[in-house]
Specification:
The chain is mostly helical. The chain is 66% helix and 5% strand. It folds into 2 domains: 135 residues, no CATH class; 218 residues, Orthogonal Bundle (MetI-like fold). Helix 13 crosses helix 15.
Length: 425
């Protein structure tokens, strides 16, 4: 008896020890996952925060009438075509008159962005009366100088090992000592579109393209997905055909997204001849990819409605359609909306299917409609990640931060809708 009790106690201790080890292993796994996620987020923020800032130089510009309006016509088209970048270069040459060698003057002109003249153009078009006057203007620095001012270019390296030369550093130091250098919030990042120059590149064009694409995706996938789920769950007979449809829907939810891109390329572009790189086609492709997710989520929400609701409605004389539309579907709508938002969040982060239909193109203009050439935020990140300029590294990480913010907001909305409208029986 005593031996049996001792054996039982040892087994119990081993069982408790195994349970403690299992709980400890689970806790360590969670901590490791949180640590990896935190490391990823810290890395993205550390690389991308600088993209929200932009360095600027103050230049004393003479609005030369011979360059801007030689015939003194005052025609806005003539004023818009003037070479304002030349005026910026002349201002830098006047600030450093000792620079006379041709290559050095080219480097001096390279202190500012190639789009600096656009600032002057906007001023002249707003107030043509400044032609012939002189004034100080803040313009963006080039990407190399911006990286230098943000500390990403080491001054301790040999001149041949860095993109910024010694004379450029001396000019920047002189301007900084004179109070002609400042760092401001980079509004262009949120209001501009793609550009070859990192300091002029922005995400607004990609954000508009993503919005238009998701509008098409939602308009197609939500009604089709919900109606399909209602039919399969409430009206379809249980036979081998409906079983086959259900199996295929579940399989489509696991198909790699690039397959939907190939389908869109073959059907929408090659067969129907729809425009490439358009939100209309991108939305149709993403709608095909999102449909299985919405159908599965909607069916699960419909199944969660208690049978007593259906029986009570049928008992008071409601038709099958009235039972579904007036009672079952409204009660299932929180789950349906949650699944839809999650599916839309997945579509927002997709890149592979859109690459196949040409949305990887370099698009400078902000799209104005569903058939205009456009790109989306994930593809914009992909394009910038492949760019050789150092400043695009920060742009890429900053765009990832914006995309993550959108995805977190959409998932938070899904949770909020479920908590707000969910009913328990």
């Amino acid at each position: 008896m005593k031996q049996a009790r001792g054996f039982s106690e040892r087994r119990l201790r081993r069982r408790y020890a195994a349970e403690r080890r299992f709980r400890l292993t689970g806790l360590l796994a969670i901590l490791a996952a949180v640590a990896m996620l935190g490391l990823l987020l810290v890395s993205i923020v550390a690389k991308g925060y600088s993209a929200f800032l932009q360095s600027e130089l103050a230049v004393e510009v003479f609005y030369d009438p011979e360059v801007i309006d030689p015939q003194a016509e005052g025609d806005p088209e003539v004023l818009a075509r003037a070479d304002y970048q030349l005026l910026v270069k002349r201002a830098l040459y006047e600030r450093f008159p000792e620079v006379s060698e041709r290559r050095a003057r080219r480097r001096l002109a390279g202190l500012v962005s190639s789009g600096a003249g656009d600032v002057l153009r906007a001023r002249v078009l707003t107030d043509p009366g400044i032609v012939g006057a002189r004034g100080s203007v803040w313009v963006k620095t080039s990407d190399d100088i911006d990286s230098l001012l943000k500390g990403f270019v080491s001054r301790g390296l040999a001149e041949g090992d860095r993109r910024v030369k010694d004379d450029e550093i001396s000019w920047i130091d002189a301007l900084e000592a004179a109070g002609k250098v400042r760092t401001r919030f980079n509004t262009t990042f949120f209001t501009g579109s793609d550009s070859r120059e990192p300091e002029q590149a922005g995400i607004w064009g990609a954000v508009v393209g993503s919005f238009l694409t998701l509008v098409v995706t939602l308009a197609l996938s939500f009604p089709l997905g919900v109606l399909s789920a209602v039919y399969l769950e409430e009206f379809a007979p249980r036979n081998r055909w409906t079983d086959l449809i259900e199996v295929n829907i579940n399989n489509l939810a696991a198909v790699p997204s690039i397959v939907f891109g190939l389908l869109g390329l073959a059907v929408f572009l090659n067969f129907f001849g729809l425009p490439r790189s358009a939100p209309l086609v991108g939305g149709m492709v993403l709608a095909l990819m999102t449909l299985p997710t919405i159908i599965i989520a909607a069916r699960a929400a419909l199944k969660a409605v208690p049978p007593s609701i259906r029986e009570a409605a049928l008992g008071i004389g409601a038709s099958k359609l009235q039972v579904v539309m007036h009672h079952v579907l409204p009660l299932a709508m929180p789950g349906v909306l949650t699944g839809t938002i999650i599916g839309m969040a997945q579509a927002l982060g997709e890149t592979a299917p859109l690459l196949m239909i040409g949305m990887v193109a370099f698009i400078v203009d902000i799209p104005g409609g569903f058939t205009d050439p456009a790109t989306v935020l994930p593809v914009q990140i992909y394009i910038w990640a492949d760019a050789p300029e150092r400043a695009f590294v920060a742009k890429t990480s900053a765009a990832i931060m914006v995309l993550l913010a959108f995805l977190i907001a959409m998932n938070a909305l899904a949770v909020l809708l479920r908590k707000r409208f969910e009913r328990r029986w």
